[in-house]
Specification:
The chain is built from nine helices and eight strands. The strands form two sheets. The protein has a six-stranded parallel beta sheet, sandwiched between helices. It has a two-stranded antiparallel sheet with strand order 2-3. Helix 1 crosses helix 3 and helix 1 crosses helix 4.
Length: about 220
């Protein structure tokens, strides 16, 4: 049985708009003007809430970026939880590709650095819950990606083995996670960094979800 594990943000769904809105909401709660721009700062959004707040600190000339990140992180999570799917969209062909994988007998799961509760809420709102019987988030275990443990645990919960598993992702974090776990990685090229992910030397590149099965079969051949 092939086991296909997906990252969530920037891989299955374009969540950048809602992430950026939540960062700006957190800044407003702290008395600061908005600093993150949808479209321009998507790559930072996919790096996580703290990364967005650090960028905001830099733009405002605040030396204590970690202090701002600490102060703003919980308000950011709360804002994101309230409006988690206002702007979020699934990438073209993603759902159909997952359905094809499951129809041919592949197991599918999610390994994300989004907090588990928020990840579960998002995939429920997107109508994906039944397609991903295993989901590991940033706080499910004691470690998060790029540590191998979350990915290995996702594979285990799906009843798979690393010899027939692959990680679909979009960033260097996913690449490092796959390397740590000793499994191949396919990186999507439709994220904010485009084909620059090729520089990470993944085992496969995915231009569109229509090609997913073919690339998985090549990688796991």
């Amino acid at each position: 049985m092939r086991t296909v594990v997906f990252d969530l943000d920037g891989t299955l769904a374009d969540t950048a708009g809602d992430l950026i809105a939540s960062a700006n909401a957190a800044l407003a709660e702290l008395g600061h003007p908005p600093q993150l721009v949808m479209g321009a700062d998507d790559a930072t959004a996919f790096a996580g809430g703290r990364a967005m707040l650090r960028l905001a600190a830099s733009r405002m000339g605040i030396d204590d970026a970690e202090g701002l990140a600490d102060a703003g992180y919980q308000p950011l999570l709360e804002a994101y939880g309230r409006d988690i799917d206002l702007h979020t969209t699934l990438y073209d062909g993603a759902v159909a590709a997952v359905d094809r994988l499951r129809a041919r007998g592949d197991a599918t799961g999610i390994c994300t650095n989004k907090p588990e509760g928020l990840a579960v809420e998002l995939i429920e709102r997107l109508g994906l819950t039944e397609r991903f019987p295993a989901l590991i988030g940033a706080d499910t275990l004691e470690t998060r990606k790029p540590d191998a443990a979350p990915l290995v645990e996702t594979i285990s919960r799906l009843g798979g083995n690393r010899g027939m598993a692959v990680l679909i992702g979009d960033t260097i974090t996913d690449r490092k996670t796959a390397l740590a776990a000793g499994i191949p990685c396919i990186l999507v090229t439709f994220g904010p960094t485009g084909r620059a992910v090729a520089d990470l030397n993944p085992e496969g590149l995915l231009e569109h979800y229509d090609d997913l099965e073919r690339i998985i079969d090549q990688v796991l051949a």
